[in-house]
Amino acid sequence: QVQLVESGGGLVQAGGSLRLSCAASGSSASSATMAWYRQAPEKQREFVASVSKIGETNYAGSVKGRFTVSRDNAKNTMYLQMNSLKPEDTAVYYCYARSYGGFEYWGQGTQVTVSS
Question: From the CA atom positions of the chain, what is the Rg in Å?
Fold first, then answer.
């Protein structure tokens, strides 16, 4: 079992920056893949970025060049540095992890609000 706890969300003006963190704990905290998803009001949850255990990254086109995902395996923590934020980035951001055994876990989400 893995528990994921996000932090770092908040309110920021357009053009600003935020850094999200996702701390993983539990017996299988060393996950093969970790990722960020987001869900805006009345929209489906969408992929934002992912990072593998060895640091391979992948980004949604809408955030490429503005967001950077990283992880510290020693701390079982993943980060999302978000720069040049836009109002359309407003959403609840969720941390996701998949273990080597294929089990999937989600955090409770953290709200990011970007004002224009």
Answer: 13
Return d(Cα 109, Cα 93) in angstroms, integer: 5
Q: Are 81 and 70 in contact (CB under 8 A)?
A: yes
Measured between its terminal Cα atoms, the distance across the chain in Å is 40
Unique residue bearing structure tokens 């996701």? 96
CA dihedral 51, 56, 58, 64 (to 10 degrees): 100
- pLDDT (tens digit, 9 = 90+) per residue, 35-77? 999 999 999 999 999 999 999 999 999 999 999 999 999 999 9
DSSP 89: G
Give CA–CA dist 36/58, Å, rounded.
10
The encoded tokens of residue 71 equal 């992880």
